[in-house]
Each structure stands twice: as C-alpha cells, then as structure tokens.
Amino acid sequence: VALALNNEGLILGRMNLPAQEEAHYRASYHLFKSIGDSAGMATALSNIGTKYLMRNRHQLALPFFMQSLAISEAIGDLSGKARILMSLGDIYRKTDQVSAALDYYEKSLVMSQTIRDDWQFALALRRMAYVYYNLYEYKKAAQYLRKSLAICKKAGDMDGYSEALTTLSTIDFNAKHYVPAEKGLLECLAVNEQYGLRFRDGEVLSH
Asked: In the chain, what is the greatest distance between 2 CA atoms, to the nearest angstrom?
C-alpha cells in the first residue's frame, strides 16, 4: 500500500496536482515508517523534496532532502545517497551557490563511480558541466560533456546522450564554430527520432 501511494504520487505530479501529490508521499512515508521500512521513508522524503525542487521552492525542498540523506547514510544505501547528493547540488546550482553545488555534484560523481552506476555518473558530469556553462567557462563545461557523452553511449542512455550533445553543440555555436555545431544538432535530431525522444527536438531547433 505504501509503495502504491508513492507511485500514485508520481502520477499526480505528472498531472500537475501538487497538493494531492504531496499528500500521497506523506501518507506513503507514514506507512513506511509504521513498518520500519527506512528505504521507503527515504524515497518518500526525497520525492517531496523533488516536488518542491521542480517548482523552484528550494528552501522547502532542502530539509526533505537532508532527512532523506540522513536515512540513506544510516542504512548504507549508496545509490539513494548519490541521487540525493545530486538533488542537493541542483538546489545550490539554481540558487547560484556555485561552490556548494560543485561540492555536492562531486560527491555524487564519486559515489556513482564507486557503485558503478553509469547513468548517475554521466548525469553528475552533465550537472557539473551546467555549472561551468553558466559561469561562461565553456572549455571546462565541454570537457565534462564529452565525458558524459562517451559514458551515455556506452551505457545506452540515449536521452542523456542527446541532452549532452545538444549542450555541447550550443557551446560550439556560441563560439561561432558553426560546422561542428550543425553536425551535433543534426545528430541530436536523428537520435531523438530513432529513440523516441522527440520531446527534445524543441531544445535542438531553438538554435
């Protein structure tokens, strides 16, 4: 029942029903707590944090992620910890606290590599790239993006591959390197078509 409530919360979030979404997560949390399921508690708390993060309510998101992180650390859930560290990095990136963002992303990066989670590792690389991109340090951003591209391709994460390649092509475009920029963007469109990622076409076609 607790898992079903959590999953229903995810569906309600996609339907843009935030009050009902959070109510389901909270109910899920209390049920997980009643049966002593710490991993479930951490997931429910993280989902509430993510709900606030997606709506740019960063100060409301922070305590839920910190509680989730504490539980994940206590039970030794390294995968969950890596995801929460990433979310904390997102909060600090979006509030222009660069040093804190990079610190959390780096911790997520190291932990993802330790548990050999290629998807999470590649995502952490992209997040770090976005920090440097926003600082106009395009060369450094491109280095992280190229690493992410290689890992995504190897792991079959074509959504991540398309995302990284779009940003990398944007860097080329901004640097007036139009030939590689066009090549990259055309490849993005082809990847999106082949792997059912047409929702990303808008990002590509905006350049």
From this structure: 59
